[in-house]
Amino acid sequence: MSSNTEVHIGIDRMGMFVPEQYLDVEDLARARHVEPAKFTRGIGQSRMSVPRHCDDIVSMGANAIAEILPDIDIDRLGLLIVGTESGIDQSKSSSLFIKHLLNLANRIESFEIKEACFGATAGLFVAYHYVAAHPDRTVLVVASDVARYGLGTAGEVTQGAGAIAMLVSADPDILVLNDDAEDYSDDINDFWRPNGHTEALVDGKYSTQVYLDFFRHVFDEYRDKTALGLDDFGALLFHLPFTKMGMKALRVALEDADVDDRKRLEHNFEMSARYSRDVGNLYTGSLYLSLLSWLEHADLDQAGSGDGSLAGTRIALFSYGSGAMCKFFTGRIQPGYRRGLRAESHARMLNARKRLTVQEYEQLFDEYYASEDVQTEKPESGFYYAGVKHDIRQYSRA
Q: So what's the pLDDT on residue 372?
């Protein structure tokens, strides 16, 4: 970030979308002849969102933006960025499809960023610099992904799908980003998806160790650079491919913590993990699902004491993308943060989902990429992917 600008820049609005169906991981465990506790406690998951053929990164991203679009001054919007590792075309960006679906102005710049699960964070900081240069402009950053590892694989329980949309602006309502980020990258083969593969390839144990090593590096560098300690933070939030991964990183941070810091940070981690536990892995959106979960659950959890406000709280966020790139950055919650959230809408969305049988889930998984030239089933509402016509992807709205 630039240290020359005095304008406060950060996240002003947040939207979320998940598919209309899910799989209970205990059902999956029994079907795979695994003790359910291995998934629910060992991995830390309860449910995973399952996309239908009509759910892809474009439709989910457009639906996440649509949730916050009424609050956006379109005349100020200058840039739309999609972070994803579930690309739909080797050339054309998903952001252009989304921009068209939402009928956004042609003057708006639009592109896609890929670096595994780090793509949305890269987009967030591109947005930061854009607003620093154009304080009267805003940016939409969308994280949209479908996490797939294959039926019966070790990573199957950590699948998921969905999208998070963020409006970045000067003087935001939710979170002001601080000028203190710490970055680290290296050429690592822990997770990748070659051309032609519909599922990721991953060395799970190695990837977990790299994640933890990268976190320790940037966390230690950050503390040395800033002299800030655990008592300066209300919450530490993490990229959560599965919730137990973030807990392992939190334990690294808490190695020398006192009782009060440990209690506060562990409690707030649990608040941040609730959506991830119920939705699964969103790849580029996982960190921001954690942020949204913490804002909407910690706020309610503290409502019995004073007004339950999180305003003024300094938080830290750890973003990781395999391959590998990470960033440790911080921000401060703003007094108007509740204006940028839709907790009741998100609760309704999650509670209204259909519970699939394992057989239904397996059929959806097998068919997801199998018949792109046919008209798909329509969702009950919102944007959806409608198949391919003359090699061009088609989208519509229910």
A: 61
Q: Give 94's contacts (C-beta < 8 A, 6+ positions apart).
A: 57, 58, 61, 82, 84, 87, 88, 112, 144
263 is in an annotated binding site: no
CATH number for the segment(s) 179-335:
3.40.47.10
Q: Are 129 and 170 in contact (CB under 8 A)?
A: no
% of the chain residues with pLDDT over 70: 95
Catalytic, 85? Answer yes
- The catalytic position among 112, 156, 239, 297 is 239
Question: Under a CB-based contact definition with an 8 Å cutoff, are residues 66 and 102 in contact?
Answer: yes
Is 248 assigned to a binding site? yes
Q: Whose CA is closest to 382, among 109, 90, 56, 161?
A: 56
The pLDDT value given to residue 3:
46
- Spacing of C-alpha 160 from chain mean position: 11
Query: For residues 103 and 80, what is the distance between their CA atoms, to the nearest angstrom?
Result: 12
- The reported pLDDT for the residue numbered 305 is 42
**What stretches in the chain show pLDDT beneath 70?**
1-5, 301-308, 371-376
Q: Which pTM does this prediction carry? A: 0.95
The residue annotated as part of the active site, out of 20, 117, 296, 346, is 117
239 catalytic? Reply is: yes
63 known ligand binder: no
Query: Amino acid letter at 79?
Result: L
Fold exhibited by the domain 9-176+343-397: Peroxisomal Thiolase; Chain A, domain 1 (3.40.47)
117 tagged catalytic: yes
Helix H, strand E, coil C: the string for 261-284 is HHHHHHHHHHHHHHHHHHHCCCHH
